[in-house]
Specification:
Layout (H helix, E strand, L loop, with lengths): L3 E9 L4 E3 H19 L6 H11 L8 E3 L6 H8 L26 H22 L6 E6 L8 H8 L6 E6 L6 H14 L6 E7 L12 H9 L3 E9 H4 L10 E11 L7 E5 L4 E5 L3 H18 L5 H4 L4 E4 L4 H11 L7 H10 L6 H11 L8 E8 L3 E10 L1
Parallel strand pairs: 4-5, 4-6, 11-12
Antiparallel strand pairs: 1-7, 1-8, 2-3, 6-7, 8-13, 9-10, 12-13
Helix pairs in contact: 1-2, 2-7, 4-5, 9-11, 12-13
């Protein structure tokens, strides 16, 4: 069977990349407003401010993020916050917070907002890749509709024979099942046509402004909106003359996935009446530390690669579930942090974009001239389950 190569990666920016300090400041105003609409005992802005300063991810770790729900906050923060009243807090048109409901729009309005905003991602990706694929896989954990925005993209382009597969609700590790699915579709295909995978993660539509807790404040300051598309190729198609512009890529050597026992309640992502609801326990980093070394060794064993012998020559795409997660993995694998510096870089300049994060890291690795052809790459992510998933890759050109 021919190898499968991942290439043609194109991140898409739909809104603005907003300074983290501005977002954290705006979160203080929103928390203060929404807490005091439901509390009998009012909470002061100073108390809210102290709480956010203590528990939010600072600009040292995340410099800027794409948060479409907050696209218009900059002028508010810079020019108006001293004189504002609660009624002037800014939310997008069509995303109205009604006075009788401090929880905001119900889930159907949020999903409608998702659908109206994110057809743009497909339009932009197919400016870069105008030819049609054989298959499209749509990945998201933040917005669903049927027909989906992926099906709409196919219909709008009159691609009657392009097949659409949906890979939904898997959270931060969502790229890995989609890549496995795409690899299977290519292996079964008689024509060995291209499989495109497109991620639309609109996490800001689910911001929970009513739960005033340390965990929720961390979540609100960590996750961001992220959009990216890329392609899987049979290696024969990849090396054809017409793909000269896409000659850099990552060859898939092995994949691995385990659900860590006794962790079902430690990371969840559930449907609520008003939004999707996330829980993230303090035990998650502990489970990652305990299991990551065995996980990586077992994945490497699938191709007869001795991890301990080769680990210093390998580079790492570690999903930045938070600033400390990358540190924990680096420490447990006993590698140098420079071998995973793209993970820190993507977190700093984009935040945690859920399933769209790892493809952004792949883009950095493919474009890095210091990573030579034939270099091995280990990619790792974690999500609800608690699921650990990974890919063993090799840079090609």
């Amino acid at each position: 069977m021919n190898a499968i190569i991942l290439s043609n990666i194109h991140p898409v920016v739909v809104g603005k990349l907003i300074n983290q300090n501005l977002i954290n400041q705006y979160t203080k105003f929103l928390y203060h407003f929404f807490q005091n609409t439901k509390r009998q005992n009012k909470i002061s802005f100073e108390e809210v401010s102290e709480h956010v300063d203590k528990y939010a991810i600072s600009s040292e770790n995340i410099e800027k993020r794409q948060v479409l729900l907050f696209d218009d906050i900059e002028s508010f923060i810079v020019n108006e916050m001293e004189n504002t009243t609660p009624s002037s807090y800014i939310f997008p048109k069509g995303f109205d917070f009604l006075p009788e409901s401090h929880y905001g729009p119900k889930i159907e309005m949020r999903m409608d907002w998702f659908k109206k905003k994110l057809g743009y991602v497909f339009d932009k990706f197919y400016e870069y890749s105008p030819s049609k694929p054989e298959n499209i896989i749509h990945v998201t954990c933040s917005g669903y509709s049927s027909p989906s925005i992926a099906q709409e993209a196919v219909i709008n382009r009159k691609w009657k024979d392009v097949k659409v597969t949906h890979s939904y609700h898997m959270g931060c590790y969502g790229a890995f099942p989609a890549i496995r699915t795409g690899s299977g579709l290519l292996a079964l295909s008689e024509t060995k046509g291209r499989v495109d995978i497109i991620h639309t993660e609109l996490l800001s539509v689910h911001l929970n402004l009513t739960e005033f807790s340390a965990a929720n404040t961390m979540i609100c300051s960590l996750f961001s909106d992220g959009f990216v598309g890329y392609s899987l190729y049979d290696e024969n198609l990849f090396y054809k003359e017409g793909l000269k512009t896409n000659k850099a890529g990552l060859k898939i050597l092995a994949s691995h996935e385990v659900i860590i026992p006794d962790t079902l309640e430690d990371m969840t992502w559930d449907l609520g009446e008003y939004s999707f609801l996330m829980t993230l326990s303090k035990r998650v980093p502990v489970f990652i530390r305990k299991n990551i070394k065995e996980f990586v060794v077992n994945m490497c064993n699938k191709i007869g690669l001795d991890f301990e012998t080769e680990k210093e020559s390998i580079y790492y795409a570690i999903h930045p579930g938070g600033p400390k997660i990358i540190d924990y993995v680096v420490k447990e694998l006993n590698i140098d942090s420079s071998q995973a510096h793209w993970s820190y870089d993507v977190l700093k300049h984009h935040g945690n974009m859920s399933s769209a994060t790892i493809p952004h890291i792949f883009k950095k690795i493919i474009n890095d001239p210091d990573i030579k052809v034939n270099t091995k790459i280990i990619a790792i992510a974690f999500g609800p389950g608690l699921t650990a998933t990974g890919l063993l890759l090799e840079k090609v050109a």
